[in-house]
Each structure stands twice: as structure tokens, then as C-alpha cells.
Amino acid sequence: MKVIDQDNWLQADSSNGRTADARKWREAFLAIRLDPAVNRDVACMFEAARGGMLYGYFFQPLMAMGAEQCYRVLESGVRTRCAEAGLPVTCADNQGRQHHLSFGHNLRALVKLGLIPEADLKLWQQAREMRDWVIAPEHQTVLTLDHGVTALARAAELLGRLFRA
Which CA distances in Å does 161 have to 25, 81, 105, 117, 156? Predict the structure, then answer.
């Protein structure tokens, strides 16, 4: 892993033995568009994911942080869409404290309501599994440009369909 110092903090991270083309890297992430129908707060989270991935050019672990953020964005999008549809997003415990319902619960509720097509459910579930995979320490430096672009593009696609439904 690159050790950041005064001299290299703005240099491409080549700790994995390769240096990506800066223009290709930048254009790959900036080409992905988020549907304007997506809730504003969710869209801001999406931009944070994009930013992390963009700056992963300089420090590879930021790519993993950006990918992890993509999965948080999807979960937040699902919770937000549930709330917009009038579905419960919290439940009370025995002491009356409110807790968020799980990502899986909210996904099933949106499928049942017809806001997520059954055909998309597998993609949403894969996102949940990838969230758990990407947070493992051994995966902090293995994500490539293609991994990041796929994660961001998939998030944009799923969120667009969700908020257009």
C-alpha cells in the first residue's frame, strides 16, 4: 500500500504495480450519470462515492471506500424510497427505542409493493453481499478501475429505476 508523504500525495498510486491513465480514470467515473428523479440526499451520497473512487487514483484504498459508499447509497435509497411510499422504515424495541428496519426487509417490502421488479431483486441482493465483501481489510487494495466503474454504474442504474417507479 502506498504510504502518503509530502512528496507523493498528488501522484498516482502505483503500489499495485501499475499506474492507470489519469484521463481514462477520470472520464470513466464522470461519464456515469444519476437520474434526476433520485432523492437529493441520496444523490449527494452518490457523489461522495464517485469522489472517493475518483481520488482512488491517488490512493488506492479510496477506491474500496468509494465502493463501500455505493452500497451504503443503495441501502439509503431503498430506505428513502420506502419512506416516500409510506412504508415503515423503523420499528420499536421493547423499551420503545426506534431502530431502522434491515436492508433486506426494506427490499422485500419494495418488491411486494411493485417498486422493485422481481427481476432486479438479485442485483439488489448482490449489492448487499458486495458491501460485506468490500469492507474486509484484504480487499482494500484489490479493486480495479473496472470494479469501481461497475459498482458506480450499477448503483446509478438501480437507483434511477427505483426512484422512477
Answer: 26, 11, 19, 9, 9
Rounded to the nearest integer, the mean pLDDT of the chain is: 91
Expressed in angstroms, the distance from the first to the final Cα of the chain is 42
User: Quick one: pLDDT at residue 14?
Assistant: 84
- Check the CA dihedral 37-39-41-46 and report its sign: negative
Question: Rounded to 5 degrees, what are φ and ψ at 18?
Answer: -135, 155
Q: What pLDDT digit, counting tens, does each position of 19-70 carry?
A: 789 999 999 999 999 999 999 999 999 999 999 999 999 998 898 899 999 9
Please name which of 131, 100, 24 lies closest in space to residue 12, comparing C-alpha atoms: 24
Positive or negative: CA dihedral 109, 112, 115, 121: positive
Distance CA 120, CA 110 (A): 11
- The C-alpha atoms of residue 66 and residue 52 are separated, in whole angstroms, by 5
Domain ranges for the chain:
22-164
C-alpha cell at 119: 427481476
